[in-house]
Amino acid sequence: MRYLLGLGSSWARLGVRYCHQSVWSSHRTVRKVGVDLGEKKLEISTGKLAKFADGCAVVQLGETSVMVTAVSKTKPSPSQFLPLVVDYRQKAAAAGRIPTNYLRREIGVTDSEILTSRLIDRSIRPLFPAGYFYDTQVLCNILAVDGVNAPDVLAINGASAALALSDIPWNGPIGAVRIGLVDGEFLVNPTRKQMASSTLNLVVAGASHSQVVMMEAAAENVLQQDFCHAVKVGVKHTQQIILGIQQLAREQKVVKRTPQKLFAAPAEMVEFARQLAGDKIYAVYTDFSHDKISRDEAINKIRLDTEEHIKEKFTQAEPLEVIEAFNVVSKEIFRNIILNDYRRCDGRDLTSLRDISCEVDVFKPLHGSALFQRGQTQVLCTVTFDSVESSVKTDLITTVLSGIKDKNFMLHYEFPPYATNETGKMGGMNRRELGHGALAEKALRPVVPKDFPFTIRVTSEVLESNGSSSMASACGGSLALMDAGVPISSPVAGVAIGLISKSNPDKPSEIQDYRLLTDILGIEDYNGDMDFKMAGTNKGINALQADIKIPGLPLKIVMEAIQQATVAKREILGIMNKTIAKPRPSRKENGPVVENVRVPISRRARFVGPGGYNLRRLQAQTGVTISQVDEETFSVFAPTPSAMNEAQEFITEICKDDQELQLEFGAVYTATITEIRDIGVMVKLYPNMTAVLLHNSQLDHKRIKHPSALGLEVGQQIQVKYFGRDPTDGRMRLSRKVLQSPAASVVKTLNDKQSITIGTGNGQNSSML
User: Fold this and answer.
1) What sequence ranges are listed for the domain S1 motif (predicted)?
2) What pLDDT sits at residue 572?
């Protein structure tokens, strides 16, 4: 191990060490760099594995290792965007487990894998050159997991290293770390155990010059100043990782390929489109009477007319160039109105919210419901309670990686095509819907009591969409929870902040001027440089997701966005509180009920029934769900109070056993055989009793293999001695064998309180052998 060549002690101070191994394989040298992150060391290596890929890197922290490959085609794709695919897979073998599905193979993709894939995609996508429309695939393969260090952040760094070490055009590298907050102390890449007690889970990806490329956070009401400090700590540590990857790329003498073509409209075509349509587009964007539909229709009409004229003048132009020429002009005019005139296309100033209206208890039969409308974004949220048994059970691999075994709160987000006046396929879950739902769930989960007796499912259906539907889901979900009577600790609201920036002509990576926009429209997201979503309570931050579309954002702008979102969030909460300010004191009358039923061990066998027959019958007939809490307590969940009443009557009838109270320990009773089994006979001491097993070992002193050896038959009456119930499992203990001895016994009948003495002996009590 030696310090990086040519950089002297400055690299040592930054905690970056470089190791060069003279191992040649397929003309690639195996190289490794170490980065100190506080008390931990991150290692990045390349040149040993997957050498046919354009780029490959292995990132290791502790004993957790992730290999990431990057491959990009050399022929352009016909698409009008970067066809980038990121796949992150959790391999069972890496966690020391075997998949639990029927085939014992990795089949399908879990929610956790999809969300991590999105995290990586949002981190690397902004740094691809504009107009690079070549199929590109980044695959993250977990090699080993130690159960201590999470692999997801390693995969982001691996993707950065793989792209930086390849010949794929990419303006990286980036670095990524996770920041936790435990007892007021900020931790860099905390362990799984530390994260269990952390109030913050912040993943930040940074670019050179301390710029932010991506942020995602889940928090428990973290104060704004603490959150901002965590972002700064994270960005600081990302710079060390960037330096390490840059040194690897220099040592490998990486030369980026020159694409056949970066798709962009020719300057003369753009100028022609500007002359034809510039004034018309400006008129539409400054006509504040337009809504989403009418504005889109007006722009589309201008587009079609302009494109026809462009095709007539530039007969050799490619279709993509014609489309892009108009898009460039439209986007430029839209952004300049905001930058120069401080006006937005709907007439608002830069920090104003759209009109907000709230409604709760929309549908009476539901456990909770709310309708949240912000401008032309409308979201219907519902709350459903179910038994604790209905909680989400995570797969074994996710449990090993994150430690979460199940969760009793979930939010599901739906975005049907009619929400944007379109048609499309229904059913299934796409990555976008999953990501938006996960963000809204992060915002609401911290305020839901952990000991709430039900599993809670919040659904958010977007009925109209014109920007920020995920944050509308957080607002609507908070209202619906309060309407349902869930004692949440504080109401939650969310807002999206946008950005329109102007780069420095001399240094394109620097931002010369910018405007932050509160509560952005869909078109402001599309034409803007950032979608900065933040949700929380009046006191602190619960969730944040920053989608940044430019190669990096200075910390100054990030801090301003957090402050602007905080002001807007409090304003939204004030509007929401006018509709409902705190949870209802009780759940609705038609809501579910959960009660604990105590069943003595002596009655448990009768309560459960043979093979659980009584429990299954109870659940089928009444619709309740029963789970065992401890030895004598069962939890009964009923969807309605009437179902609970029906279940209670059923349970009372099942456990009704007055005759058994008359049984005396050590007395002899006449039992009737109801069934002959290989291991013994089933007997009843009285007609309405549940038959119990009298084992072969208790039938006679002789060892027998089948009751028929004693000539026993169904319907036959035999004498048995009663020894109470087993204290561990509640089973009735009977024996016929002990009566074969000469000891004196007393025969009891349940209909006659008189006792009859039979047999003679030495007067000592017989015992069960």
Assistant:
1) 666-737
2) 97
